[in-house]
UniProtKB/TrEMBL annotation:
<dbReference type="InterPro" id="IPR036890">
    <property type="entry name" value="HATPase_C_sf"/>
</dbReference>
<keyword id="KW-0418">Kinase</keyword>
<dbReference type="InterPro" id="IPR013655">
    <property type="entry name" value="PAS_fold_3"/>
</dbReference>
<dbReference type="InterPro" id="IPR050351">
    <property type="entry name" value="BphY/WalK/GraS-like"/>
</dbReference>
<dbReference type="Pfam" id="PF08448">
    <property type="entry name" value="PAS_4"/>
</dbReference>
<dbReference type="InterPro" id="IPR035965">
    <property type="entry name" value="PAS-like_dom_sf"/>
</dbReference>
<feature type="domain" description="PAC">
    <location>
        <begin position="343"/>
        <end position="397"/>
    </location>
</feature>
<dbReference type="Pfam" id="PF02518">
    <property type="entry name" value="HATPase_c"/>
</dbReference>
<feature type="domain" description="PAC">
    <location>
        <begin position="214"/>
        <end position="269"/>
    </location>
</feature>
<dbReference type="InterPro" id="IPR013656">
    <property type="entry name" value="PAS_4"/>
</dbReference>
<dbReference type="InterPro" id="IPR000700">
    <property type="entry name" value="PAS-assoc_C"/>
</dbReference>
<dbReference type="Pfam" id="PF08447">
    <property type="entry name" value="PAS_3"/>
</dbReference>
<dbReference type="InterPro" id="IPR005467">
    <property type="entry name" value="His_kinase_dom"/>
</dbReference>
<dbReference type="Pfam" id="PF13426">
    <property type="entry name" value="PAS_9"/>
</dbReference>
<dbReference type="InterPro" id="IPR003594">
    <property type="entry name" value="HATPase_dom"/>
</dbReference>
<dbReference type="InterPro" id="IPR000014">
    <property type="entry name" value="PAS"/>
</dbReference>
<keyword id="KW-0597">Phosphoprotein</keyword>
Length: 618
């Protein structure tokens, strides 16, 4: 071969071949490593021109001396051993920049005919882009591996159709109740409890179909902490494919939603329990949204109306309601929705079994609030109170008739009593005259009770008439105070912030309210000696206040004092007479006059009752 080259190929041909080689090549001569030849490719690597020919390698590339290349080349020159570098890191200064580059290269000895080493040949290939790409790929793989290892979600990779566990992060191992020893095992061997469950079959099918499979709220029985337990997951099986489109592995990602599913089941069980309870109630139970659209009715309602769940129950209730009351019900409902306060109202609904006949119902609804304080729905009831309303009407009719019938004999009895009292006084019998006087006082009390019952009956039937006229409010108060003072041991103090003057109202009814408030102040302050009365103007309204220093009213009872038949209870040392109607009647009179009445009180310290009425009605 050597003879052939020497006889058939010229030195110029060899140099031409050398310069056109697709790899970087150079020939270094002598132990000074003089550059004998260098093709364009290696000159490009060095960042030099042809002027380097004839100069020492370490003269043109001094930066490689500290990187160990002198020792390497000297060893090759001395021993004749070839040196190979693979993806070797070299720092070079090229075009004024000092950067790292990577090369595959071979340093080989060059010998003469006497087999003496006369130089070194260099063959090099720059692989900087390849190495940097591999670095980026490794970094990317590291980041990906770190990401899935530290992921908050269970992740695993199964390879081949035998489903070998190639990878499983800490979350997945914890989900299985296993440790890292299962990695490399078949899935069915690592988790034998999966037998009879669909997961192994689903995974093997994906190797055939190549399609992703996902499921929500899937149950899985796993052996965790030494016992078989049921868990729930949202999970996916995603096929991983090679460039040929073949599935070589499956990526499994899962989210443990066991707590969520169990909470949902508990809510559903509670809801079912409460619905069963609601369905067993004789009352009609319902829910609705803020617009009043009914979202639920219990079975009692459907049995009563004969309607079905497919019908619009909101429209049905409106059709059953007495037409003239619909606007008032809607107005009350809108106010409750606006203020988030309970809805309570009595109204009539048509009897499904007797068209044209209406029954009274008590409608109640309370708002149900979400965690953020917003109303999410209303829960309500319809309670049939028709029989109660009939009995109440009968009671009112009886009280009205009985009270009216009692007034005639009482009037006669009072006349007879006064006649007896006057005659006894004339006969000089003061002792028996005093007895007659006390009889007359008791007749007045009985007459007052009868008048209260008559007033309540009128109020309930809407028959209380106000005979309004102009009168002097201050004078009316003085007259009532004078009458009350005549029969009371308490000192009644009256103060005025200014004259009120004329008021347009029912003088008799307003004086009835004033008298009732003063007599109550006297009655409920048995240990006090004073009652303070004050009047004045509050804007365009006449204001009247009565302040006592008696037993007071508990805070939780203040809202009840104006209710019908409510009586304020004192300690066991005191018993207070009365039917509990005076404040109710007073409140109704003030309300019908267009005013307002209210109370403030501290238990054990006394109470302050106040009403305001307009001076003039527009």
């Amino acid at each position: 071969m050597k003879s052939f080259l020497e006889q058939n190929i010229s030195q110029d041909s060899l140099i031409t071949l050398f310069s056109q080689a697709p790899v970087a090549m150079s020939l270094l001569a002598g132990d000074d490593f003089i550059i004998q030849s260098a093709n364009p490719q290696i000159l490009e690597i060095w960042g030099k021109g042809t002027s380097v020919i004839g100069r020492s390698l370490f003269e043109i590339l001094p930066e490689i001396i500290e990187q160990g290349f002198r020792e390497i080349l000297e060893n090759v020159y001395r021993t004749g051993e070839i040196f190979k570098g693979n993806k070797w890191s070299v720092f070079l200064e090229k075009h004024g920049r000092y950067d790292e580059y990577f090369f595959n290269f071979i340093f080989a000895p060059v010998v003469n005919g006497d087999k003496k080493i006369i130089g070194i040949s260099i063959v090099a290939t720059e692989v900087t882009d390849q190495v940097l790409s591999e670095r980026k790929l490794k970094e990317s793989e590291y980041r990906f591996e770190h990401l899935i290892k530290k992921s908050d979600y269970p992740i695993a990779i199964y390879s081949t159709e035998d489903l070998y566990i190639e990878f499983a992060n800490e979350k997945m191992l914890k989900t299985w109740g296993k440790n890292a020893s299962v990695i490399g095992m078949k899935l069915e061997d690592a988790l034998p409890e999966l037998e009879g469950q669909p997961f192994i079959g689903l995974l093997k099918d994906i190797f055939k179909t190549g399609e992703t499979y996902a499921s929500k709220e899937a149950s899985a029985d796993l052996m965790v902490d030494g016992k078989l337990q049921t868990f729930y997951y949202d999970f996916s099986y995603k096929p991983l494919k090679n460039p040929a489109g073949e599935v070589y592995a499956i990526l499994n990602m899962a989210v443990d939603i066991t707590d969520l599913v169990m909470a949902k089941k508990e809510i559903q069980e509670r809801e079912k329990k409460f619905r069963d309870l609601a369905d067993s109630m004789p009352q009609f139970v319902w829910t609705c949204d803020n617009r009043g659209e009914i979202t639920y009715m219990n079975k009692s309602w459907y049995r009563y109306t004969g309607s079905s769940e497919n019908e619009n129950q909101t429209s049905l209730v409106k059709r059953m309601m007495r037409p003239e009351t619909i606007a008032k019900v809607d107005q009350t409902w809108e106010e409750c929705v606006k203020t988030n306060t309970p809805f309570v109202m009595e109204y009539e609904l048509e009897d499904p079994m007797q068209k044209g006949n209406y029954r009274w119902f008590l409608g109640r609804a309370v708002p149900n609030f979400s965690e953020n304080g917003e109303v999410k729905q209303w829960t309500g009831t319809f309670t049939d109170i028709d029989e109660f309303k009939r009995l109440e009407t009968q009671k009112d009719n009886f009280l009205g008739i009985a009270s009216h019938e009692l007034k005639t004999p009482l009037t006669s009895l009072k006349l007879y009593t006064q006649f007896i009292k006057n005659n006894l006084e004339k006969a000089g019998d003061p002792k028996n005259a005093g007895v007659a006087r006390r009889m007359d006082y008791q007749i007045d009390l009985l007459t007052g009770l009868i008048n209260e019952l008559l007033d309540v009956t009128k109020i309930q039937k809407g028959q209380m008439q106000l005979n309004e006229s102009v009168f002097d409010f201050d004078k009316m108060v003085d007259e009532v105070v004078e009458e009350q003072q005549m029969t009371s041991r308490h000192k009644l103090f009256v103060s005025r912030s200014g004259p009120i003057g004329d008021v347009f109202a029912d003088r008799h009814r307003i004086s009835q309210v004033v008298a009732n408030l003063i007599s109550n102040a006297i009655k409920y302050s048995p240990d006090a000696d004073e009652v303070h009365i004050s009047t004045g103007l509050h804007g365009e309204q006449a204001q009247f206040n009565v302040r006592d220093f008696g037993i007071g009213i508990p805070e939780d009872k203040l809202s009840k004092v104006f209710e019908q038949y409510y009586r304020i209870n004192g300690s066991k040392d005191y018993t207070f007479s009365g039917l509990g109607l005076g404040l109710y009647i007073s409140a109704e009179i003030i309300k019908r006059t267009g005013g307002e009445i209210f109370v403030s009180s501290v238990e054990g310290e006394g109470s302050d009752f106040c009403f305001r009425i307009p001076k003039n009605k527009n």
